[in-house]
Amino acid sequence: xxxxxxxxxxxxxxxxxxxxxxxxxxxxxxxxxxxxxxxxxxxxxxxxxxxxxxxxxxxxxxxxxxxxxxxxxxxxxxxxxxxxxxxxxxxxxxxxxxxxxxxxxxxxxxxxxxxxxxxxxxxxxxxxxxxxxxxxxxxxxxxxxxxxxxxxxxxxxxxxxxxxxxxxxxxxxxxxxxxxxxxxxxxxxxxxxxxxxxxxxxxxxxxxxxxxxxxxxxxxxxxxxxxxxxxxxxxxxxxxxxxxxxxxxxxxxxxxxxxxxxxxxxxxxxxxxxxxxxxxxxxxxxxxxxxxxxxxxxxxxxxxxxxxxxxxxxxxxxxxxxxxxxxxxxxxxxxxxxxxxxxxxxxxxxxxxxxxxx
Length: 358
Prior knowledge:
By secondary structure, the protein is mainly alpha-helical. Among the domains are: 31-77, no CATH class; 157-357, MetI-like (MetI-like fold, Orthogonal Bundle), CATH 1.10.3720.10. It contains 16 helices and one strand. Helix 8 crosses helix 11 (223-249) and helix 15 runs antiparallel to helix 16 (324-353).
């Protein structure tokens, strides 16, 4: 018996014809399409002339002002500052190495065949190793205070460490909120609702100002550690509600089937319930991840210079005054690329984990 082959997708011309037919299907769609084309006609050519044709890619501020176009020379001049911040110039190989390790670990985490204990072990080794590499003070590395860390490096540290620590905590909070033990359920509910009930800025202020007041005399906690604690709690609270939604979406029969074969609570959750609950909530999880990633810009309120803040600080250079548009467009482009990559990966992961695709 011959195998059934899936029908081939429509040709490009067929898809284009269907797209045009949808754009002009009726007077309302036609009017909207024509309005969009008019906006593009009047907006794209001037923007192209400013951003590309008349742009300055090399030179100084005077060269940019004389050309009258975009001053990408400013972005080129401040590029490494936006990546490393105030990290000592002669030691920048350390954050560069840290970024390479971080990117390698993130990429490995997106490949399904690497999922398992070895990946967890890799993160367990890489996380403290990257921190020691940045901070120094060991193995002959000079000590660099965290207040000198900045740029895209600090954004990556806060986002990845916060999400990596907050995600398992979110699962525990979600399970605790659905627990049959009243005290555990009330405690998890109180943590989730209290954290979700205040903005991230408030948590950052409390971590920066109030947390040291509860420490014993002479004991101080690094400012970046306090930021990570607040960001991790904020991440866990929001992700816990997403995970709880997935748990509630599971049919009762799944729980009963796991009980029928004699699985204990943790095995039932690990092998049956959580894999399905986390799969059905992938879109909501990624949407929350993207929002939390962009929230890293709020750490500036307690003096931590993330990627966006370093670009704003670069605008204060007296030799490069007057080019905020280029800086903000560059920042928007970086954030868009990273967020779009997360979105596309989530769509691919959702298709891969869909039961009918297995």
